[in-house]
User: Which sequence fits this backbone?
């Protein structure tokens, strides 16, 4: 299953705006856990930025994207939050700078968002109904832990619901950022056993060549449920064929020497996956597949029976 992200937008649906905010999904992985689904109090995953995020082009990196109670969500970091609404003012602001974004689908109800202090919320129906919370910050290289935490219950006109808080901890600075909370249907939270981690360029027409990519190197891993590591059954790299092949995913113990030499302080312990973004066009292996968002090349990187 390929967890395709949809860039959240304001409630604007005309063709001009649609082209303006089109998303170029460069590379992703399906991480299939041994548990097909599981209840949780907390779910977390780590991201290791081996270099600072560039000022341009717009970049969005997601270590966690899955389903909570059958509702799609993503949780990631960007060098430019596309848009947000200031609580209380109901005024849209765009280009909010770098920060974190947490978004869920299947609703446009503003009441499903609790943005943080000095944060933003967003409601959109472009490519699906969704709401989100955004927290501008100044990301820097290093290790981040992205955590989703079950909060308080809520009674709604549609039945019981539960709030989920998104937070990000930067280990080097010991700073913790509250990204905000979203309300999910159901009293008990159950997450799908498939997690998507991906890298994309928001804000470009889908079929246009991307801007020149700066070299970018990051790793993901340490996925946990209630503080206990989740056991992985399979990892599959997925590359949409309709975009330039300028991003590559490898197991971290197979990072090319050229990247190791450029990042002498490379650390990939406990991070099984590494994403490489360059201006080199990568030759793909794997199997051509037809998925819901188009054709992709799928390459299995890890299977339990390989051990």
Assistant:
């Amino acid at each position: 299953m390929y967890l395709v992200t949809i860039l959240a937008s304001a409630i604007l649906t005309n063709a001009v705006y649609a082209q303006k905010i089109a998303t170029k999904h460069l590379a992703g992985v399906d991480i299939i856990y041994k548990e097909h689904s599981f209840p949780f109090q907390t779910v977390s995953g780590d991201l290791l930025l081996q270099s600072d995020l560039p000022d341009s082009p717009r970049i969005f990196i997601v270590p966690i994207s899955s389903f909570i109670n059958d509702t799609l969500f993503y949780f990631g970091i960007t060098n430019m939050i596309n848009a947000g609404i200031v609580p209380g003012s109901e005024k849209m602001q765009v280009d909010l700078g770098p920060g974190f974004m947490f978004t869920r689908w299947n609703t446009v109800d503003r009441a499903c968002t609790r943005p943080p202090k000095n944060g933003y919320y967003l409601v959109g129906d472009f490519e699906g109904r969704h709401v989100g919370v955004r927290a501008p910050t100044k990301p820097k290289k290093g290790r981040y832990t992205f955590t989703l935490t079950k909060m308080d219950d809520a009674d709604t006109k549609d039945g019981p619901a539960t709030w989920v808080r998104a937070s990000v901890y930067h280990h080097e600075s010991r700073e913790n950022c509250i990204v905000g909370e979203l309300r999910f249907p159901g009293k008990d939270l159950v997450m799908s056993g498939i997690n998507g981690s991906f890298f994309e360029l928001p804000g470009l027409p889908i079929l246009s060549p991307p801007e020149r990519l700066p070299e970018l190197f990051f790793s993901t891993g340490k996925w946990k449920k209630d503080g206990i590591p989740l056991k992985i059954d399979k990892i599959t790299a997925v590359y949409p064929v309709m975009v330039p092949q300028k991003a590559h995913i490898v197991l971290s113990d197979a990072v090319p020497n050229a990247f190791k030499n450029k990042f002498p302080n490379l650390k990939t312990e406990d991070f099984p996956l590494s994403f490489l973004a360059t201006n080199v066009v990568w030759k793909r292996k794997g199997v051509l597949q037809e998925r819901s968002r188009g054709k992709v090349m799928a390459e299995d990187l890890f299977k339990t029976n390989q051990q």
About this structure: Confidence is low (pLDDT under 50) at residues 1-21.
